[in-house]
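INTERNAL AUDIT FORM
Audit reference: QA-55
Scope: verify that the stored structure record matches its stored sequence.
Auditor: D.O.
Record contents follow.
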Amino acid sequence: MKRGILLNAELSGLIAAMGHGDLLVIGDAGLPIPPDTRCIDLAVTRGIPRFMDVLDAVLSELIVERSALAHETGSDLIGALSGKPLGSVERLTHEDLKRISQSARAIVRTGEFTPYANICLWSGVAF
């Protein structure tokens, strides 16, 4: 058994396989997932798991070079993201975020019911 925070085998394996510049999206329960995009569905019920819990687990293993959020993302979520290792943070329209999500290695679906609780994370390197 792994010693770290992130225990989900599929998500952990994906992060281990990511290269520089690869995109991973963490989304709320309502983010549309394109048919050809891998979905790691963690949603159990409304609010479980929460977006921030999944993000924290992912950030424990993924080096993030840059990230993107929708302009529509609420101020409470923006505040909760303060101080997280997200690299340079870009703001996009929600429509652009959904369009960019189509090129993701995977979209992680959470049980989050907060509107626009979605983030694009581009992998960095450890050197």
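Auditor finding: record pair retrieved intact. The chain has a mean pLDDT of 96.
Action required: none
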